[in-house]
Amino acid sequence: MDSLSLILDDMHFDGVVFAATHNTAPWAWSLATPGLACFHMVTGGQCWLLREGLEPTLLQHGDLVVLADGGAHRLVDKPQSLAVAEPLRPRMTRSQMAAHPHGGGGTPCQLISGHARFDVDMAAPLVAALPPLMHVRGLGEAPPLWLAIGLQFLAQEVAAPRPAQQAIVNRLGDILFMECIREHVEALPEGSGNWLAALKDRALSTALACMHREPRRAWTVPELAQQACLSRSAFADRFTQTLGEPPLTYLTRHRMRLAARQLSHSALPVNRIADEVGYASEAAFSQAFKRAYGASPSAWRLQRTASLGTGQA
Question: What are the contacts of 214-217 at 24+ separation with CB within 8 A?
Fold first, then answer.
């Protein structure tokens, strides 16, 4: 498996929550999904996306836009629209296919909007490296084939109830999000200094794949350099310059995220989790975890369980 596939697998995608809307001018929606990537696909007409700090973005028929961090934004019929924005997130479900009518009866625009479901902690490095807005245009001389096919397929699925419809839409939403990430990574210029640029560097990508494939292995810098076919110093320098931290620091952070997921989603004892993420002793693991999360594994698990129980996570 390549490194991007392994990183995406670590995010544990779980489908999408979405809403189809049939909007007529004047209209406006507001949406924020903190930490979870959200998206909008224009299946008819056009609209504008407004986000603080960014220029207004025109979205036309066939376009896909992804906000990787789920930051607050508005969708409107025009930038100067006087329509009061209604919150879109409460309309999003995993089972409602019918389009919500919205607006004042003027020029129409059809949208499919949603957000991905994945492990926010495991996704944090990837999400932080992505731009606040990724816009894939469906119009023009050569729109991406995956977008044209995906849009057509999705429009067909939401047109009428069919068996296994929700499962298919969930998987399709995941695929479109992954395709958008892949296209962004492929378009990064050489030497961009972006963390994602490591995925285009054969040596660094190989090392990342090793760490994500076998996080419990007692990797050393010389071993990773050998996998990358570089000298120890050349590998360490390139890794640190591109990813912003030394190889073993990156590995430790990844192990701590894996441990946090296990503490949140399993009943495994702490000593088992320590072993699964590459620590020979529970004491050493507990010290590393406390440095990363500010609490011992057991205390953090209790806090996490309590926050999940009250709906604060």
Answer: 215/251, 215/254, 215/255, 215/258, 215/277, 215/278, 216/275, 216/276, 216/277, 216/278, 217/278
